[in-house]
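name: query_chain
kind: protein
chains: 1
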Amino acid sequence: MEKSLVKKEPPGLRKLALAAELGKKGNYQQAVKILRDLISETDAPSEAWLLLGRSLHALKDYSRALAAFNDYLRQKPEAGEGYLFIGRTYLTLGMPYKAVPYLRKALENNPGDSRTKALLGTAYLRSKHSQAAVQILEEAVEAAPADKRIYRAYLNSLLVRGIRLCGIDDNELGLQMLRFVLENGSESGIADNTFLRLELGRAARETGRLEEALEHFTAALKLSGKNSGEEGGANDSGDRRIRWSRASLLMAMGKITEARKEIEKIRSRDAGIPELPWNSELVDLFLIRSLIDSGEWRQTTEACRNWLQTREKKEGGSGKNRPIIHALCAEALRNLHNYKDAHNHLQRALEEAPEELEFWYADMLVSWEGKDYKSLKKALKAARAYGGDKEIIRRFDILCRVRISDSNESNISLLQNAIRSLGPEPELMLALGEAYLKAGLLEEAGSWFNKTITMKKDHEGAWLGEIAAVEAMLETEGSKQWKSPAASGQEVQKLDSLYRNYLEKWPDNLNIRRDLALFLVKTFEYAEAALELEKLLVWEPSNQSLRRVLAYTYRKTGRYREAAVFLKALLKEKPLDIGLLVEYSGCLARAGGEPYAVAVLEKARELFLESPQKKEVKDISLALGVLSFRQKNVEKAFDYLREASSLAPKDPRPYEWMAAIARKNGDAGDGGYYEKEAQKRKTGGKTSKSRG
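structure:
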C-alpha cells in the first residue's frame, strides 16, 4: 500500500478545529464537550483552553471561563488574547476593577486595537477612574471614528469625568464636558435626561452662569414630568428637589416673585412646609433638607459646602443657620461613612451653638460609629453638663465603657442591667451577644444576636455574630458532629440557614461564602458546595486549593470529566504530586478514558521507580491494579497489586482488592486468604508471604 504524500493532521488539532466550527455555529455545549475530552485525554494544544474559555463565556459559565483563560495564560503568558478575554469576562460580571490590569496587559500586546481600548476605557469608567477613561476612549474614537458604541462610551466617560471635576471645584472644565455630552449625545443614543440637566444646572450655577443654570433646571423639571406622566412633574420628592433648586436660583437672580410662586407650587403638594417670609437663605436650607430626605448624600454635602462658602464670603463667618448646615452636612457624611469629616462639621456647629443638645447627640452617634471613643467620652461629658436626655447619655456611656473595658464579666453584668432598665436596643443587645461569645457562652450569645436581628433585620454585625456562635457550638461538639449531619441536631440546619440568609443580603462576603462551601462539603451536600465554590472561582480563578476542592465536589457528584479537566491543569503545575495524579486518572477512567488513564499511570510508574520517590509508587501501582481489573486483565491487576503490597507492607488495600478479584473470579480459597492478610495489616499483625 502506498504511503500518502499528504501529512495527516493530528487528531487533537482536528478536534480543536471541530470545536471552533461548532462555536461559530452557536453550538457551544457540544464545543465544550469536545474540548473537555481533548484537554483531559490528550496533550492538548494551549489554544484548547482559550477556546474552552470562550465557549464557557458564551454559555454564561463565567467562573469556569475565567479558570480556562487562566490556564491558557499559564501556558502562553505572552498571549494578549488571554488577557483580553479575562478582562472582558470580568466586565461582564460587573467587576471592572478586576478587568483593568488584564485589559492594560492586552493593550500592551496590541497597542493599536480600538476594541481593547474601548473595553479598557469602559473598565476605567466603571471603576471610577474617569480621567484615564476619557483619555483611552478618546484614543479609541480616533482609531475607530465610525464605531458608534465606542463613541457612546466616550460620551459616558465625559459625563462622569465632568461630574467628578465639578465635585473637586473644577467647574469650568466640568461644565464644558457636560455641554459636549448634551450637544452630541442624541446622535449616539444618549437622550436628553433629567440627571444630565441637573448636573449641568449645578455646574452652570457654580460658574456664575445663572441664566444657563435656570434653563437646565427648567428642562430637568419638564423631563421629570414626562417620566412621571404628569405635566409639570411635581408629584414626588425628586421633582420637589428640582423645584427647590429653581426657587433657590430664582432668589439668587433677584426674581423674588417667581421664586415665591415656585415655593407655593411645592407647598400645594406638601402640607409640611410652613408659610414663611422666604428669602434666599431659607430656600437653600429647604433645598438641603429635600436632598437629605431623598438620601442624596453626595449632593447634600456639596450643597452644604456651597452654602457655607457663599455665606462665609457674604457674612464673614456668622449666620444663625450656619450650625444647622454643619449638622446636616455631618449627617450626610456619616451616611457616606466619612466619620472624621462628619465629626469636624459637628465641632464647627458646636462652636457656634454649644448648648444645642441635638448636635451633641449627633456627635455621639458619629463618634460611636467611627470608633472614636475619646471623642465619644467628650460628647457624653458635655451632654451631661447641658442637661441632656439621661437615657440617651446612659446608653452611649455603657456602649463606650464596654468597648474600652477588658473585664468581660463586668461588661456582661453592665449590659444586662442596661437592657433591663433601658429596654431592648440593638447596639446594647449586640454588645451583650459579643460579650457572651467572648466568654464562651455560645447559646446565650446566639440568642442575643438573634434578638438583635429580630429588631434590626439588616444589622450585619448581628448576623456575623450569630454565625460565629453557631459555628463555635458545632466545633465544641467535635468531629462526630460532621460525620453524622443527620444526627447533629438543629445547629447544622440553623447554620445552613444563617449562611444562606446572610449571603442573600451581603453576597460579596467571600469569607462567609467560603465557610458555606466548606460547610456543605462537610455535610455531604456536594452539588450545592460546587455551586458556591464556582462563585468563589470568579474571584480566585488560579487558586489551586480552591480548584482541588471543586474537583473533589465534581467527583462526588459524578461530574468526572469536569473534575479531570481541573485536575489536569493542576498536574501541569505539580507534576510530581502522586495523589493528584491518582485522583486525575480515577476521574478520567470513570469518564470513559480508561486507556489514557492507564497509559498516564504506567508512564508515571516507570519514572517514579527510577526516582527517590520510589516508595510512593504504591498508590500508582494500586490504581493500575484496579484499572487493569476493570479492563478484565486479571493477571496484570494482580501483578500491580502485589507490587503495591510490597511497597506498602502495612496498607491493607492491595489485599482487599486481591480478595475482591479472587471472589469475583470464583476462587473463594484465595479470596479468604487475601482477606486474612488484609485483616492482619489492619490489626498490625505480621503479614504472611503472598502467593504467586
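note: The radius of gyration is 35 Å.
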